[in-house]
Amino acid sequence: MIWAAVLATSVGSYLLKLGGLSVPGHVLERPLVRRIAILMPIALLVALAAVQTFASGMSVVLDARAAGLAFAVVALMLRANFLIVIFGAAALAAGVRALS
Amino acid sequence: MSAESVSADWLAARREVARDALSLGLAVGTYGISFGALATTAGLSVLQACALSVLTFTGGSQFALVGVLGAGGSGVSGTLTALLLGTRNTLYGLRIAPVLQVRGLRKAVAAHLVIDESTAMTIAQDSTAHDGRAARLAFWLTGVTIFVWWNTMTLVGAVGAAALGNPEDFGLDAAVGAAFLALVWPQLRVRGGWLVAAVAAAVALLLTPWLTPGLPVLVAGVVGVAAGLAVGPTED
Hints:
The complex is a heterodimer of chains A (100) and B (236).
Chain A (H helix, E strand, L loop, with lengths): L1 H21 L2 H4 L2 H24 E2 L2 E2 L3 H14 L4 H18 L1
Antiparallel strand pairs in A: 1-2
Helix pairs in contact in A: 3-4, 4-5
Chain B lengths: L2 H27 L2 H10 L4 H11 L2 H12 L4 H26 L3 H9 L3 H9 L8 H32 L7 H13 L8 H15 L7 H17 L5
Helix pairs in contact in B: 1-8, 2-3, 2-4, 2-8, 2-9, 3-8, 4-5, 4-9, 5-7, 7-8, 10-11
């Protein structure tokens, strides 16, 4: 199952990239399409962040992951490097988990 | 302008582009270590993690797929989420195709390298300078550098995390949410960005108890974009 998803994502991603180099520019360069293209990643990435942090299966829970995300918010506001954001969040969540 | 000064000009420009492309490529590629670690945490094998970095090669989509799979979502919803995120690469391709001027095999290879950073570096060059050579060099050098380093670091991260044992002891599950937030952070500045973000997060969590894992994210993506379109005109 995982392999099927890996390959389907790979083929699809490549075709999306190739399509951009192949399709005449004006076809997709309409304002509405551009706006959707800008907003779609925002909606998906934030939804993913929310679910990764607060969902456990089909329940919504508050656990050590929330502390990790809170660290990430502060670190991002301080313009920290990507790796510091990620591994700092992990370290804080691990610390909270070890103490509780 | 004599031929020599044009050539000296180009040599200087080439050196500058090469320096920028290499440093950006090395910096960005290093994130591969977090992808590799998170992918194996989500239940992928080291080989599957590496296959994603080699074959999919677009970070946001890779994180999305392993995020959905790790949360118990189906392969179909993981793939759909990843591909929706990948649609921005289509727009990047449209934008840089006139500069790249690639055909046939070169186009087939170039397509694989169309990602956030290679596009940003290409656009950052003056497309008229040096007959567009600076922009093309920026694209190829950034793309290839990231490809090599991203894949190397994915392997390091995947093997490292697999050797660690229980990833939750190291908080790596919390790092996934942080990764998505870090990826979206610079994009929130666009008009309506914060509204879209708030709606998407709320919808995803409200639907979590009711829909199978993976689906809340897809619905939140659609509703979030609809909310963003509803608040303003489509022109930027």
